[in-house]
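Dear support,

Our group has been running a series of protein-ligand predictions, and this particular one with magnesium ion is the one our PI (initials K.S.) wants archived with full inputs and outputs. We had some confusion internally about which version of the output was final, so please treat the block below as the authoritative record. The input we submitted was:
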Amino acid sequence: MAKTLRELRDIPITRLTGVTPRLEERLGMLGIHNVLDLIEHYPRRYLDRTKTSDIADLKVGEEATVYAEVRKMTARRTRQGRALVETIVYDGTSYLYVTFFNQPWRAQQLPTGTEAAFFGKLEHYRGKHQMTNPAVDVLGRIGEKTGVIVPIYPQSGKADVSTWQLQKLVTEALRRARELDDPVPPELLDRLGLVDRTRAYNGIHQPEVEADHFRAAHRLKFDEFLRMQLGLVARKRAFEEQRVGLTHRLDGPLVPAFHARLPFALTADQRKAIDEIGADLAGARPMHRLLQGEVGSGKTVVAVTALLGAVQSGYQGALMAPTEVLAEQHHGSIREMLAGLTVSSEGTLMGDRPVRVELLTNRTGAAGRRKLSAALAAGEVDIVVGTHALIYDSVAFPALGLAVIDEQHRFGVEQRALLRAKGPVGPDGEGPEPDVLVMTATPIPRTAAMLIYGDLDKSELREMPPGRTPITTEVIPPSPLERQAAYQRLRDQVATGRQAYVVCPLVEGSEKIEAKAATDEAVRLEAEELSGLRVGLLHGQMAPADKEDMMARFRAGQLEVLVATTVIEVGVDVPNATVMVIEDADRFGLSQLHQLRGRVGRGGGESWCFLFANPQTPEAEARMEAMVGRHPDGRPFDGFDLAEKDLEIRGAGEVFGERQAGFTDLKLGRIPRDEPVVLEARRVAEEILDADPGLAHHRQLAEEVEDLLGDDVEFLFKS
Ligand code: ADP
Ligand code: MG
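Confirmed final output from the archive:
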C-alpha cells in the first residue's frame, strides 16, 4: 500500500537501521524525529561530480572544487598555540596538501578514508601544492555508492550528522516506503506538468541528472503552496458562505457630509478603495478586506468613511490600533474630523445628536469602562477607538457592525475572530457577523500577501495624496568631507527657515542606553557640526509631557534641529522639515528607513535624506542600494517596491516573523522567487474547492492541510 505523509510522520526515526540513541539525539538537533522529517530534510545543494577538477590539472592561484579521499590526517598545535590540522588528499590523479588553521574540529570531520569535496584556491607553499582553509563538504566513505550528482545536506555545527549518514538513512527510508500516495490526481499532474510524489521525493534526494532535482523541487514546492492556499481559500469561502453579515450603505447622509467637509479631494485610489468597501458593506455577506497603503497614504479617511457607513445604518464601529499611543492619536484625529457631524436617531425620540467617538485602552479606568459599557448598551456611542483592550475587555458592543483593525502584523486570525464574536448576539447565541477591515501600513508584496492574507479581499492605496515634495536620498560613506557636505546642506536649509532631523543610531541593550547615546550625540552635535543652531532632543525615555513639549517647540519652529531616536518614526508631522540625517543607517531595516524618511518631503519644499552608512554585510549594502533605487523611468522606489526588495534581501521568514502560519513550513518554497508557483497553487486550490468544497473526495489533501495549519482549519473540512 502506498504511504501517505501522515503515515510516514508516524514512523519514528529509530525504526531505521543504525539509528542508535546517540544518532537519534543528533538527528533531533536537525529537527528530524520521524521518517517524514527525514525525507523533508532536503539537500542544500548538489555537487555534480562531472564538474569537479582533477588535482593533476589544478593551476596555482585558481579556485576549484576537488573531490578526493583523505589519505592522511594529523592534528597538532603550532608553536604559537594555533590549532593546525594537516591532511593529504588523493583523487586518483594526484595528491594535494589541505591544511586548516584554527579549525580543530576538522580532525573529527576528516579522518583517514573520508571522501569530501574541497573548494578553495591552489597555493604553492614550500615546494608543495596546497589548499588552506578550503570550504569542505563531507560526502561519503570509500565503498559508499554515490551517483554522479551528490546531494549535500544542511549541516548544523553541533549536530554533526554527515551527508553520507543522511544519504544512507534517506535511501533506506525511500526504499522501504516504496510508493508514496499522491494526493493530487494524475490528470491534474499531467496538465500542470508535475512529476508524481514518489518521483519527487526520490528525485530530490537521489537525482540521476540535474533535471531530476529541479523537477522534484518544483513538485514539492507546489505541494507546500497548495496546502497553504487550500487552507486560505477554504477559510475565505467559509467566511463568505457560512455566515450572515450585516448590510450597511455608504450612500446615506453621513458619508457625503463627511467628504464634503474634508479640506481636500479624495485620491483616485481612495475613491476606488471606498467603492470596493462600499460594495462589501452593502452585500449580505460579512466583509473581510485588507486595506494596504504606506504611512501617509490616507487610510484613515477610508476607514472613517466605512465606519460612518455602519453608523448611518444604525450600527456601531470599532477601530483597533496596535499601541496605546496610536489609539490615542486616532481617537483625537477622528474626533476632530467628525466634529459637527450629527447622526439621526431614528425610532427614538432623541432626534439628531452629534456623532460620538470614545476611547478604550488599558489606561481606561474601571469607572470609565462602566460608563462606556452603559453608553454602548444605550446606543449612544457610535465609534470606539482602542487597543487590544477592545477584544479582551468585558465591554460589549451590542450593535457592532464594523471592526477596523489597524494591524501592522500584530493581530492574528484568532484575534480577528474574537473581535467578530463581540458583535450582536441573538437569542440563539448566534448573530450576524460584523464586517472586518484590516489595515496595514507596511505594504506587503503581492505574493506574500497571498500567503498571509490569502483569506482576505484586498484594496490598495498606492498613490500618495498630493502635496508631497521630492526627496533626494544619498548614501554617505564615512568620509569627513562628504559628511561635512551633508551637514552643510542641513545648515543651508535651516538658514532659509527650514528644519531638520538627525536620527541617532539604534543602540542594543536597552532603551535607557539608547537614550543616553542620543543625549551624548545631541551634546556633541551642538558643540561641533550643528554649533550655533537651536537643537532639541527627543527619545523614548522622556516623560510623555516632555516629549509633547519638545514636539510642540519643534512644530512651532522654536527649534531648528531635532535630534531623535526612532521615536519619531510614527506620527510626527512637521511639513517645514526638509532635511533628515540618519546616522548608522545601515543598521536599520528597510521599512524603518522608509518610515523615517517619510518625515520629510511633506510639503515644505524639496527635501533631502542623508543615510550615513558603512555597510559591512552584503545585506546591509543591498538595503542602502534599495533606498536610493529607481525604476528604469526614473521614479524612486516607493514603499511597495522597498517591501519587495526587503523580501528578496531577507526572506519571508525574517520579514514576517516565525509567528505567521505557514512560513516556517516552507522548506523549499521561497517568495518572491517562487511567485509563479504560488499563483498556480492558488488557481488549483480554487479549482479543487470549486468541485469539492469540503475536500470530501480529497481526504489526503484535507489531512495535509490540517497537519499544516492545525486546529485552526479543522472545522473547514469536517465532512
Ligand atoms: P495613513 O493612515 O495611511 O498613514 P493618514 O490617513 O493619516 O495616512 O493620512 C496622512 C495625511 O494625509 C493626513 O494628514 C490626511 O489628512 C492627509 N490626506 C489624506 N487623504 C488626502 C487627500 N486625498 N488629499 C490630501 N491630503 C490627504
Ligand atoms: Mg494611519
